């Protein structure tokens, strides 16, 4: 009887270790996915910022000045945006 008890205790310890390993893998996977998503977002923001500087010649403006410039044109641009660039339109 004690032998069976010891086997059960060992099995429980192995299962706890397995659960801990799987939990670690899951956390690691989530971290990797969120890191990749941040990288993609950062790249997109950098590219858009570069385009903003290029077409609006805003490289000499501060962040606040750039925001003021965008506020001036935001209503016009959003009102005249082609349907294919609107958020709720299906992507081609």
Please give a structural write-up:
- With 92 residues, this protein is mostly helical.
- It has helices spanning 2-56, 63-79.
- The longest helix has 55 residues, at 2-56.
- The radius of gyration is 27 Å and the shape is rod-shaped.
Which key phrases capture this entry?
92 residues, mainly alpha, rod-shaped
Give a topology summary:
Layout: H1 2-56, H2 63-79
Number of helices: 2
Mean pLDDT: 92
* Broad shape: rod-shaped
What is the SS-derived class? mainly alpha
Order of helix and strand elements from N to C terminus = HH
Q: Which band does the percent of strand residues land in?
A: under 5%
User: What is the helical fraction, as a range of percent?
Assistant: over 70%
Report the uncertain regions: none
The Cα radius of gyration reads 27 Å
Number-wise, the strands total: 0
In whole angstroms, how far apart are the ends? 69 Å
Main beta sheet strand tally, sense and closure: none
Short description:
The chain has 92 residues and is mainly alpha-helical.
């Amino acid at each position: 009887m004690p032998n069976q008890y010891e086997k059960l205790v060992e099995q429980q310890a192995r299962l706890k270790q397995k659960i801990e390993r799987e939990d670690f893998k899951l956390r690691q996977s989530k971290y990797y996915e969120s890191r990749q998503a941040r990288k993609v977002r950062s790249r997109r923001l950098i590219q858009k910022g570069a385009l903003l500087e290029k077409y609006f010649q805003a490289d000499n403006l501060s962040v606040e000045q750039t925001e003021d410039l965008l506020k001036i044109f935001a209503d016009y641009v959003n009102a005249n945006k082609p349907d294919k660039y609107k958020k709720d339109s299906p992507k081609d």
